[in-house]
Fold:
Amino acid sequence: MADVLHADIFFFISSIATVILSILLAIALYYAIRILHDVRNVTEKIRKASDDLEHDFDQLRESVKGEGVRVKTIVELVLGFIARQIPKPRSHRKSRDSEEKEGE
Structure:
């Protein structure tokens, strides 16, 4: 009789543990599904943004092709301005020549 009582206690504890584990698994799956849903929303937004960005680059490319000479002129103007701002290094040869003349 004690064996039957032990078996009943074992099955009762096992069924409670199974129910608790099933509830925890259901909660974990619920959160996993919510996370996957959020990830899907984020990837859709990223996909839409990348499509918009591609469209913008296509428009920019067409604009540059249409106004290529104008853009080239602007780039040359900017590069010329930058080149004028960079100081030119002094030649060491000049200083040597002036030292030789002073020494004579």
